[in-house]
Structure to design on (959 residues):
């Protein structure tokens, strides 16, 4: 996969006033604007869902660093995503504790239910399933994060319910 | 100063020096990959480990500052083991393809592997393969060989200023990547191949051509811009394989123009045999026949000579000797970019060294596209800005600076008098006026706010003013330069050797030209005008190409059609079409000769390549011609004699040739203390000012003959005619075809826009349909 881009052909995006205010606060915490790169990237990812090149360019312009410096950071940390995800991001911990408590079986079950492989998104754009390393909640293994909300001791039935609830909410939303 | 012990030897170095630098200063060999004296410290290769007494583990010497009484050991059994392990680690993914790698034989990894590595690795897992990059016409990549030292990343960020390379991902997936496909947007890209300690980034044009041990190295001087960088020409036999930066030279990098111009040495455009025109066709002949024909055209005739400033000092002197011996009446001109021939208060050349300019309190660039003109000086200024020092720029455009000067003003060439006047007012306000200033001010009613930036900068104790081509080519240049001189005097910048008056020359040898031709020179415009009026019987072009370069292409074309031409030079180019006789002169790689750069630094090349055809050093051609034209006595029959003659014009040269002046000695630039020119007050005839745009890939006969530079030029090309979008909007026009009217007629041409050029200015490239616009100073635009 080539990472090279033509920055002149990108669609322009921007932060809203509220986000800009938040960024100003973040920047003020550090001696140099570029030091706020990590928190601003988190903010951008929250807002845009993921970090495509035009968003990275926006962050670069906002903090007066060049695009490459932003890209270096984005590609270094696995929690920054350069590809879009479904509306619901299901992150299954498969590290030791969760694995021993059936995380792998759970993951397989989810993939089968949704009809996708790990890392993929359902065709309706609702669900993305990924595998993560230790989520730091081994006491509640197996753990699944749904859009950053922790669900502990998740069973297959529990998971099916979560997915069904999400679907219902979406259908309700459309109606 | 700090005193420490390296391998039990007491050494003293400046405080805060790193251990590695202290070792290098004292000839202690410490291996390293990622460290580079011109780049920031990254400390990621771990090769430079040393032991410090009392420290529990080895330290990376490149990022450890020295301390008083520190005891450093660079050669211990533990270190040997450590280095062996670092090497093993660096080589995990490195392919064992030295036999097919161009770096082989000139490779740090290879050398250190022999010196410090193990003969066999223990790593048996599959090696990683990395996708190669397309980095443009000059750099080829084999990224699998990369050891991630990040020299290239730091180079792109700190030196080239483009910042378009970086390290993506981490761990095993780590790789060097660039933002833009197909090209590194830098005029310094060629340095990457030299910078890379392994074979990951290689020189594309010379890739798979030769082996380092087959090459002969010739120290030489690049003549492609007034900077005159020290270069090493690498050749196999008579063939130039590549040009490299000279590590012992004055500057740390060379630009792509100076590096890839070598493609011209072997191009079809080279003049390698004498030729005469018979029945409309140029036919090769022997020297005698060509000289006979030249004699017919030149002897006892009224001749105009236009020569290029980039010949060696000896070559230039020989032109003067020819003039004095047999062509006393000939008109002699060389500056294709100067309209105003009145003497300048300070003549072309820098009064400061580039290092002094970089270190000055303030630097002001007045009307120069420095990145294209003097890329290596611009690189220094970029570093200056990165270090938080001031840079002021006043001129017609601010694109292509690769840095953001803190203070920047866009002005039209016609605004210069008002800018200088505004600066004068400011100096008057603080009691630094002078009667001469009053006289100057009287002629200029307008004031332009950009003058404040100039006056502010002049208040500094050490201010370097760089006067560029927008002023030098101005119709009222002498008055503007006199105005700047008055400003500097008033602000207390005396007339010492390094007083900050720097007039950027058009080519090499500016100081030599002032000394040797100061009393006989005439303007190219004037010379061509005389030729057009039928006052000249013949024209002799010595390396000069007034069609491709400079501000007189239109007149030159008319003259060449009507006046017989003797062409002397190394490149035929488009002039060849008009030549009646061609006398081939040797390229700068093929001569023993002396070159003086814009700082006045003198370099003598004494190990030339052999001629590849019948071309001879210019001075021999000139002396032979002198003989042919009937001189009783040839003025100089050896290089020594010629140098003695040159010393008549420049007495200090005697010491230079006798080896009594060091490599640091600089020839002073000429001053005309009595030059008092007042502004003409004449407004340009039309609404828009024309500024001719310089391209390092296209300007100069050598560059045009180089296929490599041509390719890069096309890659980086901007629209031939550019204006600010407001300018178009005010005229009710849109980007696209427009009619451009000048005093010499109308043309229809595409007009592009850029926001970072001054409003009211028409930027024209010297090529194609818009090429001749450079001959005019003002124009107007209207719709088709």
């Amino acid at each position: 996969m080539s990472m090279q881009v033509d920055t002149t052909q990108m669609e322009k995006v921007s932060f809203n006033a509220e986000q800009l205010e938040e960024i100003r606060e973040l920047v003020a915490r550090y001696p140099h604007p570029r030091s706020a790169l990590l928190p601003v990237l988190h903010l951008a990812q929250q807002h845009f869902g993921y970090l495509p090149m035009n968003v990275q360019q926006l962050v670069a312009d906002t903090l007066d660093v060049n695009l490459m410096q932003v890209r270096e950071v984005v590609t270094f940390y696995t929690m920054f995503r350069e590809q879009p995800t479904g509306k619901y991001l299901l992150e299954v911990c498969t590290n030791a504790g969760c694995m021993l408590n059936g995380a792998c079986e759970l993951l397989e079950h989810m993939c089968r239910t949704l009809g996708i492989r790990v890392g993929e998104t359902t065709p309706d754009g609702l669900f993305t399933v990924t595998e993560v390393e230790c989520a730091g909640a081994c006491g509640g293994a197996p753990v699944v994060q749904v859009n950053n909300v922790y669900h502990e001791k998740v069973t297959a039935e529990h998971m099916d319910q979560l997915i069904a609830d999400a679907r219902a909410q979406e259908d309700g939303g459309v109606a | 100063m700090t005193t420490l012990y390296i391998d039990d030897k007491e050494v003293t170095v400046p405080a805060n020096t790193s251990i590695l630098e202290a070792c290098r200063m004292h000839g202690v060999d410490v291996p390293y990959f990622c460290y580079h004296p011109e780049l920031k410290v990254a400390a990621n290769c771990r090769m430079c480990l040393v032991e410090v007494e009392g420290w529990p583990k080895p330290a990376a010497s490149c990022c450890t500052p020295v301390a008083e009484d520190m005891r450093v050991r660079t050669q211990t059994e533990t270190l040997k083991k450590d280095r062996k392990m670092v090497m093993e680690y660096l080589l995990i993914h490195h392919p064992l393809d030295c036999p097919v790698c161009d770096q082989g034989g000139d490779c740090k990894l290879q050398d250190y592997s022999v010196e410090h590595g193990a003969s066999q690795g223990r790593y048996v897992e599959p090696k990683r393969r990395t996708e190669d990059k397309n980095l443009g016409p000059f750099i080829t990549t084999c990224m699998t060989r990369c050891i991630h030292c990040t020299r290239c990343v730091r180079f792109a960020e700190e030196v080239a200023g483009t910042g378009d390379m970086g390290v993506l991902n981490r761990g095993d997936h780590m790789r060097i990547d660039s933002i833009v496909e197909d090209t590194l947007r830098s005029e310094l890209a060629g340095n990457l191949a030299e910078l890379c300690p392994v074979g990951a980034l290689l020189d594309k044009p010379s890739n798979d051509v030769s082996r380092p041990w087959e090459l002969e190295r010739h120290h030489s001087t690049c003549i492609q811009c007034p900077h005159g960088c020290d270069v090493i020409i690498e050749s196999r036999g008579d063939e130039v394989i590549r040009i490299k930066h000279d590590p012992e030279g004055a500057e740390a990098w060379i630009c792509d123009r100076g590096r890839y111009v070598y493609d011209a040495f072997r191009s079809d455009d080279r003049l390698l045999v004498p030729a005469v025109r018979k029945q409309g066709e140029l036919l090769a002949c022997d020297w005698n026949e060509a000289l006979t024909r030249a004699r017919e055209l030149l002897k006892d005739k009224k001749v105009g000579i236009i020569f290029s400033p980039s010949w060696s000092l000896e070559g230039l002197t020989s032109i003067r000797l020819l003039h004095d011996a047999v062509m006393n009446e000939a008109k002699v001109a060389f500056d294709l970019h100067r309209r105003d021939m009145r003497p300048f208060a300070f003549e072309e050349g820098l009064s400061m060294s580039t290092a002094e300019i970089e270190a000055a309190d303030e630097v002001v660039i007045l009307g120069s596209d420095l990145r294209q003109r003097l890329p290596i000086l611009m690189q220094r200024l970029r570093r200056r800005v990165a270090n938080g020092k001031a840079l002021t720029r006043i001129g017609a455009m601010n694109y292509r600076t690769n840095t953001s000067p803190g203070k920047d003003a866009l002005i039209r060439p016609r605004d210069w008098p008002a800018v200088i006047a505004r600066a004068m007012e400011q100096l008057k306000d603080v009691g630094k006026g002078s009667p001469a200033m009053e006289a100057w001010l009287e002629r200029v009613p307008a004031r332009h706010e950009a003058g404040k930036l100039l006056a502010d900068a002049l208040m500094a104790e050490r201010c370097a003013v760089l006067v560029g081509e927008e002023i030098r080519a101005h119709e009222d240049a002498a008055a503007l330069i006199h105005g700047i001189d008055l400003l500097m005097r008033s602000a207390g910048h005396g007339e010492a050797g390094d007083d900050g008056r720097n007039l950027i020359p058009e080519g090499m040898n500016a100081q030599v030209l002032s000394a040797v031709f100061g009393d006989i020179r005439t303007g190219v415009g004037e010379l061509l005008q005389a030729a057009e009026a039928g006052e000249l019987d013949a024209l002799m072009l010595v390396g000069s190409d007034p069609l491709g370069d400079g501000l007189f292409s239109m007149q030159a074309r008319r003259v060449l059609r009507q006046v017989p031409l003797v062409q002397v030079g190394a490149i035929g180019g488009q002039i060849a079409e008009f030549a009646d006789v061609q006398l081939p002169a040797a390229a700068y790689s093929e001569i023993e000769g002396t070159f003086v750069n814009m700082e006045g630094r003198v370099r003598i090349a004494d190990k030339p390549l052999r001629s590849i055809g019948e071309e001879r050093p210019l001075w021999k051609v000139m002396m032979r011609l002198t003989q042919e034209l009937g001189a009783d006595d040839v003025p100089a029959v050896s290089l020594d004699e010629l140098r003695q003659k040159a010393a008549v014009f420049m007495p200090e040269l005697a010491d230079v040739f006798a080896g009594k002046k060091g490599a640091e000695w600089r020839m002073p630039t000429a001053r005309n203390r009595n030059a008092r020119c007042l502004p003409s007050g004449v407004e340009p005839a039309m609404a828009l000012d024309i500024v001719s745009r310089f391209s390092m890939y296209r300007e100069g006969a050598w560059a045009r003959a180089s296929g490599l530079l041509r390719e890069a030029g096309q890659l980086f090309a901007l629209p031939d005619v550019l204006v600010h979008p407001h300018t178009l909007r005010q005229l009710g026009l849109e980007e696209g075809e427009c009619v451009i009217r000048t005093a010499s007629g109308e043309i229809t041409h595409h007009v592009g826009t850029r926001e970072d050029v001054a409003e009211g200015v028409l930027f024209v490239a010297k090529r194609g349909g818009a090429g001749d616009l450079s001959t005019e100073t003002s124009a107007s635009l209207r719709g088709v």
Summary: Chain B has a mean pLDDT of 93. The two ends of chain B are 71 Å apart (CA to CA). Chain B touches chain A through 17 residues (CB under 8 Å). The first helix of chain B runs from residue 19 to 25.
